[in-house]
Design goal:
Blueprint: H1 2-7, E1 10-16, H2 23-33, H3 42-47, H4 54-65, H5 71-87, E2 90-97, H6 99-103, H7 109-127, E3 130-138, H8 143-153, E4 162-166, H9 178-187, E5 190-195, H10 201-211, E6 215-218, H11 226-234, E7 238-241, H12 243-248, H13 260-265, E8 269-272, H14 277-280, H15 284-295, H16 299-311, H17 317-333
Parallel strand pairs: 1-2, 2-3, 3-4, 4-5, 5-6, 6-7, 7-8
Helix pairs in contact: 5-7, 16-17
Zinc ion binds next to strand 1.
């Protein structure tokens, strides 16, 4: 099963580029930028990756971002992820970035997106990997800051496919951002939002009914509301589930308690993703492997998840069909 999981063609739909910033690269970039990291060594930094909740993780994640100053830094971080993604047989990945994490440190929006964009172009040329870009608003900041970010994105409209909502969930419901998402939708962006990771099912309802999302990021707490589950099934609403993230942030107590299999059995349209792989102990293949072993998923389940990853993506229908055919060809020719 390990070889099968590693080799099956797949897409990744929930990935924060700042969450791919590996400690080794962080120290290297901090050194060349003469930025001090509040940890004496790579090992000390890694030892701090022991979180009790989302906020404890976010505090370290935002601190790590302080090393990123130049276009080259964003290029190097993005390129390192895309190389890894290609090695894991990810054909297509939809990358989230948090412009406000950088603009509030006076790093220009242009510096951030230009570095990411150059890596996307090079990776397409060098590895054939296709990408989309999702700009996330930080929900612990206010609506006005989100509007300003949407404005700053305008010159780069052609590089951004969707707008999302991330950061500290509890106390920051999707309803706070209804108006700015309405504007983003009118401008032609696709929409996603983190909901039901730590927050209640009610936040998932708000993401559906007020934000009118095309996809829900996480969505775990939807299971507490049967009517919501039915709505998600009827709408064929994709959920981008992140098993190792849920484990590391204590959304689940143990990986064997993870609801992924239950979600599949209820007919929810789920995908498997890595979220912040540098912090949560694994990229997409490690997520598939951990959840397969813990929940005893079958080969058919893995095939379903891989197909779902393309079906739930923002690729056009022709490209979706091509990728799903690649999954089928792989399955037909695979022998262990
Ligand atoms: N949840 C919310 N915000 C985030 C995450 C997450 O898992 N990762 C990066 N920003
Ligand atoms: Zn996330």
């Amino acid at each position: 099963m390990k070889g099968f999981i590693e080799k099956i063609p797949k897409a990744e739909l929930h990935l924060h580029i700042e969450g791919t910033f590996e400690p080794e690269l962080m120290f290297e970039i901090a050194q060349r930028n003469k930025v001090r990291i509040p940890y004496k060594s790579i090992d000390k930094l890694k030892a701090a990756y022991d979180f009790n909740n989302l906020q404890e993780f976010l505090n370290i994640y935002y601190t790590g971002c302080n090393a990123l100053l130049k276009e080259q830094d964003f290029y190097d971080m993005t390129m390192a992820y895309l190389k890894k993604a290609h090695q894991q047989n990810i054909l297509h990945t939809e990358i989230m970035f948090d412009p406000q994490t950088h603009t509030r440190r006076r790093i220009p929006f242009k510096t951030v997106i230009t570095g990411i964009q150059r890596a996307r172009k090079d990776a397409k040329k060098d590895f054939g990997i296709s990408t989309k870009l999702i700009m996330c608003f930080l929900r612990h900041l206010d609506e006005e800051a989100a509007f300003k970010t949407l404005e700053e994105a305008q010159p780069f409209y052609n590089q951004i496919d969707a707008v999302g909502l991330d950061s500290s969930e509890i106390g920051h419901p999707p309803s706070n951002f209804e108006r700015v998402f309405k504007k983003a939708r009118a401008e032609g962006y696709l929409l996603v939002a983190h909901a039901g990771e730590e927050g209640p099912a009610e936040y998932v309802w708000e993401a559906l009914n007020l934000i009118k999302v095309d996809r829900i990021d996480h969505g775990n707490h939807s299971l507490e509301d049967n009517r919501l589950v039915q709505e998600l099934v009827t709408k064929k609403m994709p959920l981008t589930v992140c098993p190792l993230s849920n484990l590391k942030l204590k959304v689940v107590k143990d990986i064997s308690d993870h609801p992924l299999k239950k979600m599949m059995q209820k007919g929810l349209f789920v995908t498997v993703n890595s979220d912040d792989p540098a912090y949560f102990g694994g990229y997409v293949n490690e997520n598939y492997l951990a959840i397969q072993q813990a929940l005893e998923l079958t080969r058919e389940d893995i095939i379903q998840l891989a197909k779902n990853s393309f079906e739930a993506s923002f690729l056009n229908n022709t490209d979706k069909k091509k990728c799903i055919s690649q999954v089928e060809e792989f399955v037909n020719s695979y022998s262990d």
